[in-house]
User: What shape does this take?
Amino acid sequence: MKLHSMVWKEILRRPGQSLTALLIVALGVSALVAVESVVASSEQRVASQMQQLGANILILPEGVTLQDYHAADAHGRSLPEEYVTRITLAQKVGVEELAPKLSVPAELGGDSIVVTGILPRSEFYKKSAWQSVDLLTAGLSENGVGKKHEGCGGRSCQIATTDKTDLSSYATTRIVHELDMNSALVGADLAKSQGIKKGQGIRILGASFRVEGILPATGTSDDGRVLAHLHRVQELADTGPIVNVIEVMGCCEEAATDLVGELDALLPDARVVTISQIVQTQVTVNRLMNRLSYVIFGILMLIGGASIASVMFANVTERRRELGTLMALGATPGMISRMILLKASTVGVCGGVCGLGLGLMAAYVAGPQFLGVSTNVSMQAVMIGLVVAVIVSLVASYPPARKAAHLDPCLCFQDS
Amino acid sequence: MIQIESICKDYTRGRNVVHALHPTSMNFNGGEFIAIVGPSGSGKSTLLSMIGGMLSPTSGRVVVNGQSLYEINVKQRSRLRNEQIGFLFQSFNLISYLNAIENVQLPMTVYGTDRANQQNQAKHLLERFGLGERLDHKPSELSAGQQQRVAMARTLAMGPNLILADEPTGNLDPESRDLILRTLHELCEEGRTIILVTHDMTVSASAHRVFHIDDGYASEDTQNKSRDAA
Assistant: This one.
């Protein structure tokens, strides 16, 4: 017989005591794992919504409102395209993508439409090359336009997840990697109303374009537009190097805090606005849930710790005679302590594993039910939950273990 | 083999000092059967605890096989107790959630003996005490006599040369009592020293030497010694 099998037999002998402590530990861990996994799903949902939303920061000409922007950028005012370079070179932390746009009126098949010039990513490489900023090129390929921000909950930059050949990804990411000077993308509604198909040629602003893709419907003004290379649109509309708006995809936390102010300072004669309410609300809810899960976990671990301590103290008192006998048989105080701590860590590990199972079950039910997304298991929460459960069990059991180790072995000669 | 040199035990309660055992010296040899008799609260168990290395004397020394018990550290003392001293208790002190064979294995578990040897030795001892059919029985499934035999097997698990027995026959029927006493005498004949605390005169009558303790004062019953000599 080994010490651990003796401990296990003792746990099974008094299952009620151990189960109480185990249950509280399990509840704490399950609360943490469930809420954290739901928060991870929520963050994924926020990230996905932000992607669908496109930009979360807009750089508009002075005096242009958000309403003007939503009205197909038809405000008639402009910004120098050089601002794009300025932002790129500033390497602001949290700037993931930049999407400068110039919208001009045009005609297609007798209908008035809007042609929007967009800048493909490949143009950023060209800019960095002629600006001799080598670091920028490296940064572009890995982390987006600006420096990587560590506080985005592990959300990867959109560039990394976008298929470079898929032009229709513009609908969700505002990014196209390559766009030929004579190529165009057509919005879903416009393509439908004019019967335009991929590969077909169209004529706008007096020039011919080949339709490289039909954008999926987004429910925005993009559905009625034709998108072409910014420089081609500037050339055909004879506007010079200007844009109407620069859309910035900032990682959400930065967008909600420092980035707007920094961009404002960088471009003093432009208007920097953020869809702050949306961003702020999402960020706040996520942070709140995140903190709440740790608060609940902390409270339950405190209760669990107190419960384990109480159970173990009662256990030591109940087993005084048995522990005294073991000492009479030659068990050292260290061995007696180890027995108690082994029992506590067994309760901690079992409680942690049960809590993990319960938490994952809860998350898998709550995630799809309330958030409409598949649940992402928060490995961080799993690890923290298990480790803290064992540590709390051991710390809470230390005083009873110490008491047990210092029991008077003469007890076994008494109480006869 | 066992030297007890002027050991005494005092307990301090507030300003009062209670003399549980006044300075006592004794010497025991291997193969001796010693009985310690006296009324309840006279200091018998205190003396037994100090001989067993479980209670530090206020002063004096206890030397077992050349090792002064209270001049070595706790770990060494526990090891010595495990290897050289066996305890037998009035209320058996078997662990309720372990079966007979597991209870006998306990001293070997403490020592770190491998599982196979533990099982062989424990089984052999239980068979010696007629409990070969009761290996898997929990203490609650055994009679008092059987429980004391399991406790006796546990005492012998590490082959100790000193056995300390505190009223081992106190809870037993006459038949079981005779069996335990007979076994203790057999162990004594094997060269082990038996120190037995009792207030049963029939038990002490069979001892080689008898010590009386009364109110913390110990004295040897020389009549018993002279009877032995005669």
About this structure: Residues 3-48+283-415 of chain A form one domain. Residues 129-139, 153-161 of chain A have pLDDT under 50 and may be disordered.
